[in-house]
Amino acid sequence: MQETTSREKILKKVRNALMSKLENPYQDTASDEGIYATLEESLDINFAQEFTKASGKFIYCESEQEFLDHMSALIRDNEWDKIFCKEEDLLNKITASSDIFEQNADELVNCKVALSTCESLIARLGSILVSSKQFGGRRINAFPEVHMVFAYTSQLVPDLKDGLKHIKNKYAHQPPSMITLITGPSRTADIEKTLVMGAHGPKELYLFFIDDSTK
Predict the structure, then answer these.
(1) What percent of the chain stands above pLDDT 70?
(2) How many CB atoms lie within 10 A of CB 152?
(3) How far apart are CA 89 and CA 108, in angstroms?
(4) At residue 1, does pLDDT exceed 50?
(5) Would the pLDDT of 81 be above 70?
(6) Higher-scoring residue by pLDDT: 143, 63
(7) The whole model's pTM is what?
(8) What is the 3-state secondary structure of the chain?
(9) Burial of residue 104, with CB atoms counted within 10 A of its CB: 0-12 exposed, 13-18 middle, 19 or more buried
């Protein structure tokens, strides 16, 4: 069949290229070694530094009781009257102001604040790794104006690959349909190079960092 168009010529070249398999000349190259510089600080310090650089609000807690004290003060100071949280284990830790916590997923759009856990904390990036397997689902990271995250020091991992490996091992038989990396509150400067907070998600991001190293 005679080639009559440029399109047919290009498609033929693509098909021929797909049929021709070339050996990988870099099979002995380790793709995950020697890429990143060694972290100079400990995982917790590096995470805190990078997290605050991205405008996150880092709150260190020596215990779960201190977490409750800090959160109660935050609720009181900001006069929050409705907070979305659907995680039973987390709600069971909360004793004060428990009546303001909303578990009905349909009410999420009406809640200014949300509280959730996370999968991992990425020390190098100062980022929080979350997934759709958590009880808050996909929307909790986008709808509320304020997102509060509860996490333990034991959830710290050096790099993103370690966080993804954790998720792969945790949900081996049924992996989450969505994995999200949160680095500070949502912001953009696409419009006239003016920084706008809360463009695609929360304007404020709090992390309650609970020390469980002595457990």
Answers:
(1) 82
(2) 18
(3) 19
(4) no
(5) yes
(6) 63
(7) 0.78
(8) CCCCCHHHHHHHHHHHHHHCCCCCCCCCCCCCCCCCCCCCCCHHHHHHHHHHHCCCEEEEECCHHHHHHHHHHHHHHHCCCCEECCCHHHHHHCCCCHHHEECCHHHHHHCCEEEECCCEEECCCCEEEEECCCCCCCHHHCCCCEEEEEEEHHHEECCHHHHHHHHHHHCCCCCCCCEEEECCCCEECCCCCCCEECCCCCCEEEEEEECCCCC
(9) exposed
Residue ranges covered by each domain of the chain: 40-210
Burial label, 209 (beta-carbon count in 10 A; 0-12, 13-18, 19+) = buried
Nearest residue to 57 (alpha-carbon basis) of 170, 205, 185 = 205
CA Rg value for the chain:
22
Q: How buried is 120 (Cβ within 10 angstroms: 0-12 exposed, 13-18 middle, 19+ buried)?
A: buried
Q: Identify whether the C-beta of residue 202 lies closer than 8 Å to the C-beta of residue 185.
A: yes
CA distance readout (Å), 122 to 46, 125, 158, 180 = 9, 6, 6, 12
Q: Which CATH class is domain 40-210?
A: alpha beta
